Amino acid sequence: MKRPFVARVWKEGEWYVSQCLEVDVASQGETEAEALANLKEALELYFEPPRATRPPRVRLIEVEVGAA
C-alpha cells in the first residue's frame, strides 16, 4: 500500500535536510533529490513491521511534571 507524505527540504551548510511533516522522520543528502530519496528510504524502514527475536524488555519510569 502506498501513501503520500508531505516533506520539507532546506539547505543546512553543505547538506540538504528533508523532514516528513506527518511523521517524526528526517534525513539528509548532498543534493535535494538525494535528501528526498534518503527520506523515502527512512520512511519505508520506519513503517516496516518489527521483527523481534525476543520479547522487548518494558520498564516503568517516573518523571516529575508540573511546578516544582
Keywords:
68 residues, alpha+beta, 3 strands, 22% helix
Task: Offer a concise description of the structure.
The chain is built from 1 helix and 3 strands. It is of the alpha+beta class and about 70 residues long. The model has no long low-confidence stretch (mean pLDDT about 95).
Topology (elements, then pairings):
Layout: E1 7-12, E2 15-20, E3 26-29, H1 32-46
Notes on the structure:
By secondary structure, the chain is α+β, with helices and mostly antiparallel strands. It has a domain at 7-46. It contains one helix and three strands, in the order βββα. Strands 1-2-3 form a three-stranded antiparallel β-sheet, with helices on one face. A hairpin with a 2-residue loop joins β1 and β2. It is extended and about 40 Å long.
- Low-confidence residue ranges: none
Return the string of H and E elements.
EEEH
What level of helicity do the residues show?
Answer: 10-25%
> What's the average pLDDT?
93
Strand content: 15-25%
Cross-sheet strand order for the largest sheet? 1-2-3
Radius of gyration: 17 Å
**Coarse shape:** extended
Structural class: alpha+beta
Major sheet: size, sense and barrel closure? 3 strands, antiparallel
**Distance between the first and last residues' Cα:** 48 Å
Number of strands: 3
Number of helices: 1
